[in-house]
Amino acid sequence: MDDTRQPTLAEIEERFVALLDGRSSRDEADRWAARWAFDDDLTWTEPEWWALGLLAGIDLRHGPGADYLHDDAQVRAWLHELRARRAAP
After folding, report:
1. Which residues have CB under 8 Å from 82's CB, separation 6+?
2. For residues 68 and 45, what is the distance between their CA atoms, to the nearest angstrom?
3. Residue extents of the structural domains in the chain
4. Distance, CA of 6 to CA of 21 (rounded, Å)
5. The pTM is what?
6. Rounded CA separation 25/59 (Å)
7. Chain centroid, CA 25 distance in Å
8. Interatomic CA distance for residues 27 and 4, integer angstroms
């Protein structure tokens, strides 16, 4: 993916996949999503904005040294929902 142009929904989806299969850390996914989510010059579709909002903050924990706020099962469920939103007319 080219970090100089706005990512597509497929590229956002790939960030969820990379996180779940261990190719990306939660910190990397969070930083990548935040870079795009906080760019006020961009316009997003509802599914893109929804997915970016989940990725931006995916590294949050219940507290210092605690488990992640959202476990892998939740992230997997979000990925399934994102795919359903992509398939919706």
Report:
1. 9, 12, 13, 16, 47, 50, 51
2. 28
3. 9-87
4. 24
5. 0.90
6. 9
7. 11
8. 20
- Round to the nearest angstrom and report the end-to-end CA distance of the chain: 26
The pLDDT of residue 85 is: 92
> d(Cα 53, Cα 29) in Å, to the nearest integer?
11
The SS3 assignment for 70 reads coil
Amino acid at 19: L
Average confidence (pLDDT) per 10 residues, the chain, 89 residues: 82 98 97 95 95 96 94 97 90
58 is written with which tokens? 């995916």
Spatial CB neighbours of 19, under 8 Å, sequence gap ≥ 6: 25, 26, 29, 58, 75
The predicted structure's pLDDT at residue 2:
58
